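Journal club side-thread
Mid-discussion, someone asked how the predicted structure for our own chain would compare to the paper's figures. Pasting it here so we can look after the session.
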Amino acid sequence: MTSDVYIGMNTLKRDAQSRTKEDIEQIRHLYLDIDRRGPEALEAIRNSSGIPTPNYVLETSPAKFQVVWKVENISQDEAEDLQRRMAREFNADLAATDSTRVLRLPTFVNRKYAEAHIVTGRREAIATYGPEDFRFRGDDHDERREHLVANGRRRVASEGEITQSERDWAFAKRALARGDDPDEVIRRIADYRADDKYDSEYYARLTVRKAQAEIKQGLASPKRATTDLTQESVVGPDPIETL
């Protein structure tokens, strides 16, 4: 049986002769390589209010997993930063956070260890995520909040600065647009904002209502139909749609 088969998670430029960061054409996936306390790490990911449901989970050997999210509109530097943050938060392999990483394919055999293991995989979500879907408690948001709060009052965000409230609204709008349950979106925002809002659930409900109204207004507005065949012809289908 064929063994040790890998595939790159992000597309390469057409003229690429190697697999370096400069050769990456587009970020298509974020991922984690979990080789310690795998079941506990998976449970933590699934229970996190700041990390969306993975698209794929591969069991590469007993209790060792590779977790994959389909993404769009994420730069290479942003993708690697997100992966490092997730790796630290969920005790994944920090060495496997580069954008050029290859992961194993399901149905093939992993012969890295003494006992061979057939790689299995399952799909857990069909959504495609953006950067606002990955939210971290304890990142620079907390540091920024401390600077915003001075002498018991908040300063007005400077021109061009994206506020956390705007990030929450963007997250809600995207989650609702892809069909997430509004109550679940409210819960995730409320959990994330629990430390810096007096009534985080009320705030979350207002945010979701605003997002729902924006989506409804957008659906009611006529839009010019466009067709773009270039993107699919360049990047191709999802490389692990065989799951």
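Post-session note: Confidence is low (pLDDT under 50) at residues 139-160, 222-237.
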